[in-house]
Predict the 3D structure of the following.
Amino acid sequence: MDSRLIIDAKGIVKRFYEGQENELEILHGIDLSVREGEFVSIVGSSGSGKSTLMNIIGILDKPTEGSYLLDGIDVCAAKDAELSRIRNQQIGFVFQTYNLIARTNALANVELPLLYGGVGAKERKERAEELLELVGMADRMNHTPDELSGGQKQRVAIARALANNPSIILADEPTGALDSKTGRVVMDLFHQLHEERGITIVLITHSNELAEETQRLLTLKDGLIIAERKGATYAA
Amino acid sequence: MLLENIRLALTALKANRLRTFLTMLGIIIGLASMVMIMSIGNAMNNYVNNQMGSLGANNMYLYVYIRDVDLDGNEINYETARGLKESDYFSKEIMEDISQKYTDKIEGISLSVNIGNAKIQKGKEYANIAISGMNPQAIKSTNLKMIAGNKIATADYSRGSKVCLVSDRYVNAIFGGDANKALGETVEANISNKYYTYTIVGVYQYEETTNDKLAKSPKDITTTCYIPIKAAVMQNPSLANYIQEITLVGREGIDPTQTAAEIAKYVNERYYKTNDTYRVEYTSMKQQAESLQQILGAVKMAFMAVGAISLLVGGIGVMNIMIVSIVERTREIGTRKALGATNGYIRLQFITESMVVCLLGGAIGIVLGILLGQIASTLVGASGMPTVSGILGCLLFSMGFGVFFGYYPANRAAKLNPIDALRYE
């Protein structure tokens, strides 16, 4: 594989309450690399350290030990303001609970990362409309989150994650709050984005079934990656 | 960015209308009372200035008053001090001396004596008058507007003619409103069983004073019947010997307080040096107006302080609600941070929100304050608007308030850890 290394993490250790009596080590030294255009899933049961790993990959949290380069940038050394900029430009988050901003319509939600990225109003609107169209929400742009169904909200959230053309989409249990039918729609959307646009996606899930659909599957257990293999049902 | 923030703030505030309104209430009340007090204060100031102008802004007053210490330096007890003797009062000699010596500083001495009050009856109609003997200077400072006849002639002053000026109210009651019919007629008054008769030579336009508003009926209002001071003194010689206070009318451009002090010093040294109990004190219209304005200013400050306290309470209310609002929106803050909002942006967002609350409340308060101020100053009987700079100051102040009381909660929001915020339930 010659494509660019997007995630290059080595020896990631995460400890909480460091130096205190109740010190707790969640991740025990994880190496993770994801190349441009890959669709990778990290699977594990609850308590395996998925969320902690996700926070570190999404630079919402810093590792206690280890090195992490995101698209070539040394994240561990970055200051607060730079971290905000990296989150804004390099990462697109998709959450289990959608986390759309209440009372704000779909369009404004998708515009938000662009606003933080300093994009002008006109361009923002055009880009957001384009993205909502891409996720099949063109006819609901002016609806607020409480006027949308779960699946629709998640599609808006995906459009939002794509706003700044990030290097990577981090999806944390994106179908966790959806019924299987709408969950399917969302998964199909991820596949479509991956295949048609070559978007790099890291899916974090506890569902083996969904993980099998991805290119590469990493199994996390007790803070260590214990297995890595090709997805069984990945169709490429 | 700022525009976005304002829009965002308005959306957030609209979502909680009642809460927003209650939050603003403290600011509204605080600013309304401050603006109202400014209006009333200005109205009072205008009122004082008007009164001062109509009474003569350059007037100075000299009056005979008890000394603090006697000639030997012993303190004088006000209760056991001897009463005024004829020789203690202003003599004709003193007044002539002042007029001559200070002719470049004063236009003259305004002198008036009161003969007394009388009720003039004509059939069922009646009019109350007060008879005052005036010298030309005193008449001049009353600024009478004549509607018929003429003012008292110079010759009548020097002869002490029994002529008089009456008001149109008097004419209305006694002559059925025909001022020309009154000219040449006589006023006959009985005061303490003495009869006084004067010929009407002029009718002036009566102007209502604040005291008159308290009269039971307009008919009972007492108007003045002006006669030459010499006529009054000829009829009642003792009046001339008991002048305890004189009014000096200063020329334009002098400093009344300083001039009054200078004249009082001169009179004391020349005429009261050997008086064991009395001396001459002074004041000026300007000085009185200043001290009145000082009192008004103090009252204004006191009320402003009350308004400021209410504003402070309102500001704390804003801060409280902002903290609640931020706790409620913790996940939103986390999401925004995950999407790339910097701490500075989050801080700005919430400061803007608190600023918008304060500005909206401030604007409503200012409008309310102007309205209340208008009502109140109408009751006082003078008009006064808060100054434009005052209003702008209030707006800026409320904006500053928003920043001040919004900063702490906004900063707290900005410093939230994104993971904790995202996972907050």
Observations:
- The CA atoms of residues 319 and 405 of chain B lie 5 Å apart.
